[in-house]
Amino acid sequence: MLTPSNIIQYLYCPRFVYFEHVLKVPQNEDKSYKVQKGRTIHKYQASVNQNYLRKKIGVTGKLTEAYLSNELLRGVVDEVLWLNDGTMAPLDYKYAKYKDRVYNTYKTQMFCYAVLIEENYQKPVKNAYLVYTRSQNKLITLEVTKEDKQNVRQSAQNILDIIQSNRFPKATRYKSRCNQCTYANICIK
Hints:
The chain is of the alpha+beta class. It has helices spanning 4-12, 15-22, 33-47, 104-121, 146-165; strands spanning 59-69, 74-83, 88-94, 127-132, 138-143. The protein is built from 5 helices and 5 strands; from the N terminus they run αααβββαββα. α2 (15-22) crosses α5.
């Protein structure tokens, strides 16, 4: 099963999948300060205010640190929310400052969680929520469309096709991404 990180990496450049899952070359990104700090924040948020419901957005119930999976994806959602309109939504805490835009990586992660919630609870997901902990816990609402969820499913299938066929995919068309790539030293450009 794939994680939201796998989908994000694939969308950044399909070759991430090949290097990490076919050739088994690790990235070692778990050691970064932001990754470690984010994990600490998630553990803290899960331990405090366990009974706190965000009435402002119509939350009637929640489940914290929920491990969800289906035939394609798996992940741990910081909070799975039940809303008073009969829908559900993921909520994720970000160790980041809100700078008047939501990055595509965050959106993709939330779309993955939306797919997992819909398939595990058979309830519609129309929105997702991000809490920016370095901006006084600013709450941002993201719309989640059918197309967003279908793109996640298609990306997951494309990843599985690369892994199962051992196929070396085309690189991203955005060549500037290669400058910060973990695999730049071993990738054929």
